[in-house]
Amino acid sequence: MLKLLFVIFTATLYSQSVFAAPSPSIDITDPAIPKFDQAFWSDLAINEKNNCYNYATNRAEGSWAQPGDASQSKYEEFTCASVYKAASMDWGLTPTNYFPLDTNPLETLIALVVYPGHDFHWFRRDNDNSWSHKMNFAVLDVDFSGHKILDPETADRGRYTDFCGYFKVKNYFISPVEQNAGFVRIGKMTDWPQSTYTEKLLSPLNLPPRSRIILPYFSGKANPSIPLSEIIEDKAIHKFLHKVALQLKTSARRSISRKKNILPDLIITDPEGILIPPQSRLEMKDNNWTLTFKDQTFSTMRSTISAKLKNRLKKFEADGPAHRKDLALDL
């Protein structure tokens, strides 16, 4: 009898533990597969704090999530085996083989690839049976050659040469919102996914965002960056950046279309308003500076001093801070 009571008590305790599936506090129907929504993930407040893992799992929790973070089982190296194992420990991700969309229209298929020794990347199958992804700050439905992604195994993935496998996740929409509906617990999430959690997404640690200069090299791990307040102490850079900001503000404003498969070389985010308006971002591609506001992009300009910025940031990266665990890259 005592043994039976112990078994019942243990089973009850286990069912109430953190490993048990939560009972969502929202009114949900059957899970569904989200559509490609570039606007949601390109919003500056969402875009700069959520990476490809956030995108694929459809959960914008705001910490540039790393596989295994939420389960205290983070990967140890950038290999398929290590990252795949870490992701499989995060709640809500189920390892699976490939399956056609029409055989399981209730679960979203996502795929993991690795740039061996350097980074990971994720793809998501959308409701039209094509694939999309978030490559550092660019939200794309094309591969590295600009082609529509119909199969992540054969698509041009650039340096992410190792295909690791698939997971499936569930998305419960809170009508009419399809994005940020992934029923997972990743990154710095301390609670189960639910509607009340949405209010915490943009500042999960309740820390004010810092203005930073970022080298957008990676899609998964944190990109090397420097606080803008530090680098702007260089008088030549300080003077030049203010000149850039002034010229962009006073230039003839015209909307321009950005090619989806072109990624910037350098990004300045400035929520502190040190240089540019808080709801904007300054990007540099091939010495062209583009000022991007929340809803549109304005005209570009050229500069020769941008090389100085790039060299200084590259030296910062060469010193190894992006790989030191004791350095907080608060993106």
Helix segment tally: 8
Write down the secondary-structure element order: HHHHHEEEEEEEEHHEEEEH
Query: Based on helices, strands and strand pairing, what is the structural class?
Result: alpha+beta
The count of strands amounts to 12
Give the DSSP E fraction (strand runs of 2 or more residues): 15-25%
The number of distinct structural domains comes to 2
User: What's the gyration radius in Å?
Assistant: 21 Å
Indicate the percent of residues in helices: 10-25%
Task: Describe the structure in your own words.
This protein is an alpha+beta fold. The protein folds into two domains: 26-200; 212-323, no CATH class. Helices cover 22% and strands 19% of the residues. The protein has helices at residues 2-15, 38-42, 44-47, 52-57, 80-89, 228-231, 235-250, 306-318; strands at 94-96, 108-115, 119-125, 131-135, 138-140, 162-169, 212-214, 225-227, 266-269, 280-285, 288-293, 297-302. The strands form two sheets. It has a six-stranded antiparallel β-sheet with strand order 1-6-2-3-4-5. A six-stranded antiparallel β-sheet has the order 8-7-9-10-11-12. A hairpin with a 5-residue loop joins β3 and β4 (131-135). The longest helix has 16 residues, at 235-250.
Short note summarizing the structure:
The chain is an alpha+beta fold and 331 residues long. The chain contains 8 helices and 12 strands.
